[in-house]
């Protein structure tokens, strides 16, 4: 018996346990590279957990976050990423070495917007991501895995408990 159904798309599944491994591996890459960030800057929402883990692993207590909206749904995105308020004042980061953390560099445009926003103020900015896609416009300095598959993150692989647009989710 043959099936005319298309094969299921390849998926990269990140469990919470693997996430812990990824954080430590990325932190080790930073240490091995000799980079000593003054601050870890998370790109919310996906980079928040990574930034926290890197902060602990690298003994960096100065953490901050920037909110960027780009994805509006599965494979649905705005034309360009938009930084949402409140954003850390770029002037407050003057002279600092910044490690920018995000879950994935897919198009890379979100990382590019954030890096470029702070570029003229910081001493140095480097990026760390759990996953990097081959078509990204930004190649992160620190990458745990490279993939062209759809990624199931443990925090977003199940639907929210609440649908903020329409009430309780089912």
TrEMBL record:
| Tagged with keyword Cell wall biogenesis/degradation | no
Per the database record, which ranges form the Phosphoribosyltransferase domain? 16-156
Q: Name one GO molecular function term.
A: glycosyltransferase activity
Q: Which InterPro entries match?
A: PRTase-like (IPR029057), PRTase_dom (IPR000836)
- The protein's superkingdom reads Bacteria
Entry-linked SUPFAM superfamilies: PRTase-like (SSF53271)
Specify whether ATP-binding is a keyword of the entry: no
Pfam families linked to this entry = Pribosyltran
Q: Which UniProt keywords apply?
A: Glycosyltransferase, Transferase
Instruction: Quote the Gene3D superfamilies the UniProt record gives.
Output: 3.40.50.2020
Q: What protein name is recorded for this chain?
A: Phosphoribosyltransferase
What is the protein's species of origin?
Nocardioides aromaticivorans
Q: What lineage does the source organism belong to?
A: Bacteria, Bacillati, Actinomycetota, Actinomycetes, Propionibacteriales
């Amino acid at each position: 018996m043959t099936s005319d159904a298309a094969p299921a798309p390849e998926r990269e599944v990140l469990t919470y346990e693997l996430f812990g491994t990824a954080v430590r591996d990325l932190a080790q890459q930073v240490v091995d590279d000799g980079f000593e960030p003054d601050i870890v800057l998370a790109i919310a929402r996906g980079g928040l957990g990574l930034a926290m883990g890197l902060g602990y692993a690298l003994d960096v207590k100065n953490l901050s976050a920037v909110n960027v909206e780009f994805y509006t749904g599965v494979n649905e995105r705005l034309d360009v990423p938009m930084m949402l308020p409140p954003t850390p004042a770029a002037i407050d980061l003057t002279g600092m070495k910044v490690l920018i953390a995000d879950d994935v560099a897919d198009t890379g445009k979100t990382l590019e917007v954030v890096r470029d926003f702070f570029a003229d103020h910081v001493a140095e900015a480097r990026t760390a991501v759990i996953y990097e896609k081959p078509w990204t416009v930004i190649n992160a300095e620190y990458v745990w895995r490279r993939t062209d598959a759809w990624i199931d993150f443990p925090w977003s692989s199940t639907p929210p408990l609440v649908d903020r647009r329409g009430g309780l989710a089912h």
